[in-house]
Amino acid sequence: MRPQQLIETARALVADDKGLLAMDESVATEDKRFAELNIPQTDDARRAWRELIVTAPGLGEAISGAILFDETIRHSTKDGIPFVKVLIDAGIIPGIKVDAGLTDMAGHPGEKITSGLDGLRERLAEYSTLGARFAKWRAEIILGDGIPSRACIEANAQILALYAALCQEAGIVPIVEPEVLMEGDHSLERCREVTEEVLQTVFDKLYTQRVMLEGMILKPNMVLPGLTCPIQETVDEVADATVTTLLRVVPAAVPGVAFLSGGQSAELATARLNAMNARFKARLPWALTFSFARAIEEPAMEIWRGVDANTHAAQQRLVNRALCNRAARRGEYAASMEAKQG
Q: What pLDDT band is residue 1 in, cutting at 50, 70 and 90?
């Protein structure tokens, strides 16, 4: 472990009101999104899309770090320049998703745990040589009848802590992502209760595994009502519930909380982040930032649609969305900032 390096990297990831771009979709996930827009599901199309992202002029003005997938960290531009170098030259820190996806939890129907610890020490060493300075691991907590169980929460928290300890051993900052899913008809209060329990458990396990909190980033869900809940609270009510929950359970030593978008619309995710910073930023012990994927990429992909001639317009939309989120970090976002394109 190199404590000072970890601390400096973690701080850099949340500095200057910037945030993270999660461009770590698996091949299957990326192909699914391509299929929805009639984009060819090929290696060349995926590489072209990711090149569009990493070469977008001005991306580094709003993005501090980019989370890559195993395929992506090995990719180069059509001119032969490694994506990692392109990102570094733009002032963006390269990161890597290291979990191996979800698997059914034995004895607990309807619940999942995340796999990928086997061989992780060796993979982290390789990713470090490829230029990754931080990593991400996602756990999924599903809300439903009788779930999540205590066993599911405990198991996922333990795995997250083991992952984080291995990252820091390798000199890589861990992003710890326990996601309470939006799917369902649960209330905001139910999401708040479970989110609080999950985060309490995660930090208990991190402490037990001797993870240095100053050298990590938390990537949680916002506290939200389920997508099909008949009562959908206002932006300010979501901000209040989310920040109140975080203040109860997230230690002040953690440098930043980088929210996932979790299926929210691009504009709504930004508006909710903006409300949190506008209302609470002056008295928070940690930075509230973003680690969005679809909420930044999707509007650009809808413009691009696999057509080279659309690349410039798509890049403009991508960077605009990132800049909107940087404004939200300052509590200065307004819907009028959204680009009028397409």
A: low
> What six digits make up the tokens of 53?
């992202």
Kindly tell me the burial class for residue 231, based on how many C-beta atoms sit within 10 Å of its own C-beta (0-12, 13-18, 19 or more): exposed
The number of beta carbons lying within 10 Å of the beta carbon of residue 36 is 11
Confidence label for 11 from pLDDT (cuts 50, 70 and 90): very high
Quick check: 187 and 143 in contact, CB under 8 A? no
**In the annotation, is 219 catalytic?**
yes
Q: List the one residue out of 180, 173, 54, 168 whose CA is nearest residue 112.
A: 180
Given this model, what pLDDT does residue 341 score? 43
User: Is it true that domain 3-331 has CATH number 3.20.20.70?
Assistant: yes
The answer to whether residues 300 and 341 touch, using CB atoms and an 8 Å cutoff, is no
Neighbours of 107 (CB within 10 A): 8
Beta bridge partners of 217: 175
Q: Sign (positive/negative) of CA torsion 127, 128, 133, 139?
A: positive
pLDDT tens by residue, 52-80: 999 999 999 999 999 999 999 999 999 99
Its pTM stands at: 0.96
- In angstroms, how far is CA 74 from the centroid of its own chain? 20
- Annotated catalytic residue 18: no
Q: How confident is residue 263, by pLDDT bands cut at 50, 70 and 90?
A: confident
Look at the block and give the residue holding tokens 């002040």.
252
Q: Do residues 213 and 206 lie in contact, with contact meaning Cβ atoms separated by under 8 Å?
A: yes
Number of residues that this document lists for the chain: 342
Bridge-based pairing of strands 102-104 and 112-114 is: antiparallel
Average pLDDT over residues 139-168: 98
Q: Which of 177, 179, 297, 298 is catalytic?
A: 177
Query: 332 with 281: CB under 8 angstroms?
Result: no
pLDDT confidence of residue 128: 97
Cα-based distances in Å from 128 to 73, 77, 169: 11, 21, 12
Q: Provide the 3-class DSSP secondary structure of residue 111.
A: coil
